[in-house]
Design goal:
The complex is a heterodimer. Chain A has 3 helices and no strands. Chain A is elongated and about 45 Å long. By secondary structure, chain A is mainly α. Chain B is mostly helical. In chain B, helix 5 packs antiparallel against helix 13, helix 6 packs antiparallel against helix 7 and helix 10 packs across helix 14. Chain B is globular. Chain B starts with a helix and ends in a 17-residue tail after the last helix. The chains are: A mainly alpha, B mainly alpha. Chains A and B meet through helix 1 and helix 3 of A and helix 5, helix 10, helix 11 and helix 13 of B.
Chain lengths: ~70, ~500
């Protein structure tokens, strides 16, 4: 179960950035000064890191101080 | 002598100094030299990995694409961040296996997993054929940067020689420790410069980032989004996915994972780096600023440098040039290290099995100047062909993916014959499509535009998979399936 969530969270950035592209391929509206498509890609760059943090926290392999 | 030239030379000397001092207190056997004794924590792994992603290609290429192609440039940001999701899952397993079997090269992974020195040899040859064009590209970039930043007083040829000598010295002495230390300066420099010029130039010329995009949008409608044909949605999506898959297979990136001291260091690196890629955004801003200010550049790779040249004092251009040089030296040094390690360990050793480990260590260092010279030769003689070579190299390296992935299955379903046959067929298809300039459009002219714009590398990868499974099915009887149970390492 935990593993299934981890895998889903890893696929989400691909769906978010690439899967939604047909709907966000537009210049307006501008967000944070950027064309919308650029903003969308940037948003998902950040969310990629966010989802990996959650995956990292969920992974029991990262608990405890092994060798680090 | 102007301020720019003095600063450029100061950076080269700094790189050499940092590279050499990195050796202090370490006994340089092959494991120290090539993979840093597997002792690097999150920060060094991050710097090496970022050093490999932010090359001259991203520095010059990202601005060039933003300048010349507009919206499609975003694919660079897309693949540079998404590839770390893939790295997060793949590389800890690679590290684990590498540590258990004392591996120092990517080809060693093939040799060990499939218990076949010849499969290692094949992987080494594909790796070397792909890495040399990549080194050449770094050197070409270095030549361009120094030439423009020195206002033409240092020729690209001289710049390439100076860069290569600096590289060779510190790589031979300190190996990957040198790369890591140079990477520290490089990353500080590049972040600082990207942010400064990425904000200053739009502000100075257009009154801000949003006004800049609005003016570009009015002057060139549709330029900032993806077009319907060519560099379209399906091109974007397929190219990002292919690049994500291929990027994990670069031998220097793969083997650089062995430098980590734990799986956690690799995972943490995969978490931080996507955010770090946002730095490319500032490079896009510079490229976009150049669209209306220096239109009609013949060599679009010069967009960032030319606009900076006309906007800043020489000393600041020198800083940009210095940072640019470091973006070439860091990945260049990793490429050199792993090209020579692959050669000595997985080519020479297989052909001359009696070679001792000590001799391999020595040979790896002796090969550095040799590979450097070969690269200089191609840099100075090759024309436009290098871009073609690099595209081919990227698709070449992607062909290594299926055997790596299927080496982690619980029950081994791919044999060494299957892996080898798949890779050879894949590489031949790539070579054919590159040389003939085939695209999905020319291969399947009747298909809808969505299919025509797909990345042609997908064809080679799919046929590679089919051949791999087919040959594996026929050769399986000879393999003891249980032979790999003892490894017990799967992608985790």
């Amino acid at each position: 179960m935990r593993r299934a969530i981890m895998i889903c969270l890893s696929i989400v950035p691909f769906l978010g950035m690439l899967g939604c592209l047909p709907f966000v391929n537009t210049v307006e509206p501008f967000v944070l000064g950027m064309p919308f498509i650029m903003f969308w890609v940037c948003l998902w760059v950040v969310l990629t890191s966010v989802s990996l943090v959650i995956v990292y926290k969920l992974d029991p392999d990262n608990k405890g101080g092994d060798a680090e | 002598m102007n301020a720019a030239i003095i600063l450029i030379f100061a950076f080269i000397l700094l790189a050499i100094y940092l590279g050499i001092q990195a050796k202090r207190g370490k006994k340089m056997n092959l494991e120290q030299w090539a993979v840093g004794g597997r002792s690097f924590g999150t920060i060094f792994v991050f710097l090496l990995s970022a050093g490999e992603a932010y090359t001259t290609f991203t520095f010059l290429g990202a601005s060039s694409w933003a300048y010349g192609k507009g919206g499609p440039a975003l694919y660079i940001l897309g693949y540079l961040s998404l590839m770390y999701v893939f790295f997060y899952w793949l590389y800890p397993a690679v590290w684990n296996y590498g540590k258990k079997h004392n591996l120092v090269s990517q080809a060693g992974f093939f040799e060990s997993k499939y218990k076949s020195p010849y499969l290692g040899l094949l992987a080494a040859i594909i790796g070397i054929l792909s890495m040399i064009p990549y080194i050449v590209l770094q050197l070409k970039g270095l030549g361009i940067i120094v030439q423009v930043a020195s206002y033409g007083t240092i020729s690209p040829t001289l710049a390439v020689w100076i860069g290569v000598i600096a590289l060779t010295i510190y790589v031979m002495i300190s190996g990957v420790h040198g790369s890591a230390w140079t990477a520290v300066v490089k990353d500080i420099m590049i972040i600082g410069i990207a942010v400064i010029i990425g904000i200053y130039l739009p502000l100075h010329y257009y009154g801000g980032i949003e006004p800049m995009f609005k003016q570009v949008m009015e002057a060139k409608p549709g330029f900032l989004a993806l077009p319907d044909k060519g560099l379209s949605l399906s091109w974007f999506i397929s190219t990002v996915i292919m690049t994500v898959l291929g990027a994990a297979m670069w031998p220097h990136g793969f083997a650089a994972q062995y430098t980590a001291k734990s799986k956690k260091a690799i995972r943490r690196n995969s978490i931080i780096t996507p955010i770090y890629t946002l730095m490319i955004l500032f490079i896009f801003f510079v490229g976009t600023a150049a669209v209306l200010k220096i239109p009609g550049l013949e060599n679009q790779d010069l967009a960032l440098l030319k606009l900076s040249q006309q906007s800043f004092d020489p000393w600041f251009l020198g800083l940009i040039g210095g940072a640019g040089i470091l973006t070439a030296l860091v990945p260049g040094s990793l490429l050199l290290i792993y090209t020579s390690t692959s050669f000595s360990k997985n080519v020479y050793k297989v052909l001359v099995p009696k070679t001792t480990d000590q001799q391999i260590g020595r040979l790896s260092k002796i090969m550095i100047p040799v590979i450097a010279l070969v690269s200089v030769f191609f840099t100075l003689s090759g024309g436009q062909g290098i871009v073609t070579l690099l595209l081919m190299a990227y698709s070449f390296i992607t062909q290594l993916l299926p055997p790596v992935i299927f080496s982690f299955t619980k029950k081994r379903i791919v044999t060494k014959q299957g892996a080898g046959a798949g890779m050879i067929v894949g590489v031949l298809i790539v070579a054919y499509t590159t040389i003939t300039g085939a695209t999905m459009g020319t291969l399947m002219p009747g298909m809808p535009q969505v299919i025509q714009d797909l990345n042609v590398g997908i064809v080679a990868l799919i046929i590679n998979l089919i051949v791999m499974f087919a040959v594996s099915t026929f050769t399986k009887k000879n393999v003891r399936v249980a032979s790999d149970m003892e490894e017990g390492s799967q992608i985790s």
